[in-house]
Amino acid sequence: LCSSADPRVWFIAPRCTDIDAMGQSGCKKAGASTPGTAGAEMDKQWPAYESKMKAEGLNEAAIAAFKYNLGVLLSGASTMIPEADIGPVDSLPTLESLDVSADPSLLKTTVMLKLNGGLGTGMGLDRAKSLLEVSNGQTFLDLIAQQVASMKSEYQTDLAFMLMNSFSTSKDTLEALAKYPDLGTGADLEFVQNKAPKVTAADMTPASWPKDPSHEWCPPGHGDLYPAMLGSGTLDKLLGKGFKYMFVSNSDNLGATMDLKLLTHFANSKAPFMMEVATRTDADKKGGHLAKDNKSGGLLLRESAQCPEDDEKAFQDTSKYRYFNTNNLWVDLVALKGIFEKNNGSIPLPVMKNSKTVDPRDKNSTPVLQLETAMGAAISCFEGATAVVIPRERFAPVKTTSDLLALRSDAYQLTKDFRVTLAPERNGVPPTIKLDGRYKFVDAMEKLIPEGAPSLVGCKSLAVEGDVAFAKGVVLKGDVVIKNAGSELKTVAAGMYGNEGGEKTVVEL
Prior knowledge:
Layout lengths: L18 E4 L17 H16 L4 H16 L10 E2 L22 E7 L16 E3 L2 E2 H16 L4 E6 L4 H8 L12 E3 L3 E2 L1 E2 L16 E2 L6 H7 L2 H7 L4 E6 L9 H10 L3 E7 L9 E5 L5 E4 L9 H4 L7 E10 H10 L8 E7 L9 E6 L13 E4 L11 H8 L3 E3 L5 E3 L9 E4 L6 H7 L6 E11 L2 E3 L3 E10 L6 E3 L2 E4 L6 E4 L1
Parallel strand pairs: 3-6, 3-11, 6-7, 12-18, 21-22, 22-24, 23-25, 24-26, 24-27
Antiparallel strand pairs: 1-16, 2-13, 4-5, 8-10, 9-17, 11-15, 12-15, 13-14, 16-17, 19-20
């Protein structure tokens, strides 16, 4: 994927050179080109792609989705959402302010779905990131399975659960979940996301790499959720069984639990789509934000690469654009089916292109484009879509080893219903962790904390520089920097370091 699954940091730099967003909103942008108007170039290129995808056995929904994306690329559709076209979202309801009586009966017609296609290669992993240990020997998947079981027990009702896996994560995931047969098995438990052809950057033809043909394909981003549901038959199967609502989130976000209050609010609102958003801070200002489309009056997402250079100051103004997408989404399945029927079997999401080489490990191999979509961008495709502001405790994704270290510490606690939440003493604010680049991969981070993570419940920020290991019994307070300028490993001995008086403590080993 061109993004981390964190929607705030898809385009980290204000001006991005290798990632562009094409099309302000595939659903609503006035005058946006579509595959039907891409012209002679599309007529020239498409037959080779269609033949390649059919030979690979891809279903009609996967082919339709890629055809739309390729058409947008070849059409030269606008890449920008200028300030003049949008406005801020002035106010939204908050989870805490919702005046609803939770209705457990809605669980019978609701499916809880986790996106589980990521390998976590950025953390040095070659298997599903959700198989990482989080707490007391339990993985993300263990805790998710126990969350579902706890809710079934509490409300004495069934709760349907599914995963969208990738070809890379399916086998390991199903093996790990075999000990939880009540979750479901086979097609009742998972469907697999599609793959898409890479595009040769020089001439827009399908990429070819005979040394390893698998490199000719790429994941199409988590916006593939929708065509994958359609093409696998999952959407029709759920509708046929009477399911109405879907709650979808990332498997590495343990804060994204099924919330009955939110479900009841969504059902009562009759909205076709609802996004959980959180309030932006200065730390979020370079990430995408929620906005209002001046023409349609509806909601849309603007990412940094969709912002003209002259508008960057407004883009980063967190007092103006106050909310970001957490990737916790609520979808009316009947409305989703209607979108497909209206658009000839595809959902017209904005398209992003990611510049790569066909073999990602060979920088001298053929330059290619990977076309991707984001599931949150669908907010502009559903007329009447809404959003709700949630507390940060529902947004705690693990994208780096710094995130994982914090999650394994006492700054977080495991509840009786298997939710991982910030300790009450944190007042809703997680510690800021910055580990030296040598700890980028999980195996290196494990060597940093051989006896377990230090106590961070009273720590505001921690930076680690150099070759370090924490002994058991280390307690950190306030702002702490641990430094080892030497070439040999140094151990931080048991004891308390730092203070809560506001002054930074630098520990040089």
